[in-house]
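A.,

Following up on our hallway conversation. Structure tokens first:
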């Protein structure tokens, strides 16, 4: 199924009973905690998407706030019209590995592009009035979390699209007690572009632009067709276009329109677009920031972008989300692309890799289709561990904890994974310790660099496959009830004991 835009996806969720509108007053200004509490409540008790119509302390009260739209594995699969999470993951991995299934994006006439219904040019740009500012917990700044950042390699002209956060400066606490230059709250924001080391591809572009003594032209397209967000959260090989991959995921080309002030193209049905220039030498220190590992980062020092133009749809909508102790809204749409990236790469090299699950806290579980003596060679589990750390995409090399299991272990069920670890692993013999992996950028246990985030981390791999033939010649018999017997007994007892 193709969604034209975020609105069609939301209408689908509403029809499906997975979205409600809410006009209960909730506070979203700085120093309020309502929205973080709402996120926890939804994930503890009633995991639906919401549209919040009655926010208080809100700088753009007419703009409804989309809340928790991606908050389950099912809703994440539905971004590309597939309800079953396993099928969604397999489809993502298959399309990722098959360039012939991608569709090049199509350029349309600017007059037909809803994202240009309203155009606000340079002198009139005032982020504090025109862009929603939403706080969830104790963050210093309000963050934009619904924007895909679009830029081109300054040497080759090839496009990159990545889902990156930015920090707005209006009404922001400075984490070190300083202040931001006067007027920057109206037309500047700080972008999570990591150029040193360049951990994201916008960071590579920014570094290359700096070598040419130029700023980098960037556009952020906010709240697009959700297939575009899924593609933008996927780490494609450098130089490949996420819009073409999104076309493959949605089964039809993404429609783009030329920007007003930069030589870039953006999705025509985005709710908002911010155009401008990203500077290498001009940075801002922003924080506190609530991160995906579930901790507050005290500060990050990241590049500043000057906004030269804002365009938006008539009656626009805005999506905001927070990273906090998992799970939370975009946890799942962040994980599925990582699963797809690693699965696609590994399955092309190692046919015995059946499935990969990344948990909300980013533990990687690799399920093989074979175990014991059917493994291609003894110690095959360790070979797979190395392959994960060397797999394509940005995230595999940051996998801090990887567990390899056989086909009888359910990678979605942590009880099952724990059972395999406890009964098939000798901790010294069946683990690999990597002293110098790449850090998962929000891991608070890894040493921090001057920019406020870690670059290097130790990693651990656990081979929880059955150690035949490496250690034993015989298999132990598992003591477990046959599912058919369980179903028979359940049928017998349900009328007596109740459901
Ligand atoms: C809501 C959300 C926010 C994200 N924010 C960032 C970010 O600020 N910086 C970053 O490097 N990656 C961020 N990511 C992950 C990237 O989108 C993902 O790694 C993507 O593949 C990066 O694209 P790239 O490899 O082309 O740089 C975020 C993902 C999601 C779902």
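Then the amino acids I'd put at each of the 499 positions:
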């Amino acid at each position: 199924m193709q969604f034209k835009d975020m609105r069609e996806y939301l209408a689908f969720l509403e029809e499906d009973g997975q979205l409600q509108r809410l006009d209960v007053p909730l506070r979203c200004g700085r120093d309020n905690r309502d929205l973080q509490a709402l996120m926890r409540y939804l994930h503890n008790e009633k995991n639906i998407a919401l549209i919040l119509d009655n926010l208080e302390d809100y700088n753009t009260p007419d703009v409804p706030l989309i809340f928790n739209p991606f908050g389950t594995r099912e809703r994440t699969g539905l971004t590309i019209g597939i309800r079953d999470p396993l099928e969604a993951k397999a489809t993502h991995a298959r399309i990722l590995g098959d360039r012939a299934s991608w569709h090049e994006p199509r350029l349309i006439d600017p007059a037909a592009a809803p994202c240009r219904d309203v155009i606000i040019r340079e002198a009139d740009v005032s982020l504090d009035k025109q862009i929603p500012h939403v706080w969830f917990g104790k963050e210093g700044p309000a963050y934009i979390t619904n924007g895909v950042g679009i830029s081109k390699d300054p040497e080759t002209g090839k496009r990159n699209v990545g889902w990156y956060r930015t920090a707005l400066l209006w009404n922001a606490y400075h984490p070190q007690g300083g202040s931001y230059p006067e007027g920057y709250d109206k037309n500047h924001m700080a972008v999570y572009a990591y150029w040193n080391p360049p951990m994201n591809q916008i960071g590579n572009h920014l570094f290359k632009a700096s070598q040419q003594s130029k700023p980098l032209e960037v556009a952020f397209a906010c709240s697009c067709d959700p297939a575009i967000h899924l593609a933008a959260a996927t780490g494609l090989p450098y130089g490949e276009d996420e819009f073409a991959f999104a076309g493959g995921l949605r089964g039809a080309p993404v429609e783009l329109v030329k920007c007003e002030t930069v030589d870039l193209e953006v999705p025509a049905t985005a709710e908002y677009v911010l155009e401008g220039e990203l500077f290498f030498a001009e940075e801002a220190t922003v924080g506190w920031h609530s991160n995906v590992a579930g901790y507050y980062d005290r500060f990050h020092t990241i590049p500043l972008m000057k906004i030269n133009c804002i365009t938006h749809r008539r009656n626009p909508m805005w999506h905001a989300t927070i990273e906090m102790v998992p799970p939370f809204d975009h946890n799942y749409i962040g994980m599925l692309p990582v699963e797809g990236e690693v699965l696609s790469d590994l399955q092309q090299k190692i046919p015995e890799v059946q499935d990969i699950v990344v948990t909300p806290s980013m533990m990687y579980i690799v399920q093989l289709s074979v175990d014991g003596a059917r493994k291609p060679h003894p110690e095959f589990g360790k070979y797979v561990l190395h392959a994960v750390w060397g797999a394509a995409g940005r995230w595999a090399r940051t996998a801090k904890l990887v567990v390899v299991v056989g086909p009888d272990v359910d990678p979605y069920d942590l009880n099952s994974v724990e059972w395999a670890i406890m009964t098939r692993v000798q901790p010294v013999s069946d683990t690999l310790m990597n002293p110098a992996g790449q850090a998962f950028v929000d891991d608070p246990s890894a040493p921090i660099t001057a920019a406020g985030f870690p670059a290097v981390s130790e990693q651990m791999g656990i081979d929880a496959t059955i150690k035949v033939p490496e250690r034993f010649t015989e298999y132990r018999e598992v003591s477990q009830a046959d599912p058919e017997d369980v179903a028979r007994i359940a049928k017998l007892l349900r009328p007596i004991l109740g459901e």
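The first helix runs from residue 6 to 15. Curious whether your intuition agrees with the design.

B.
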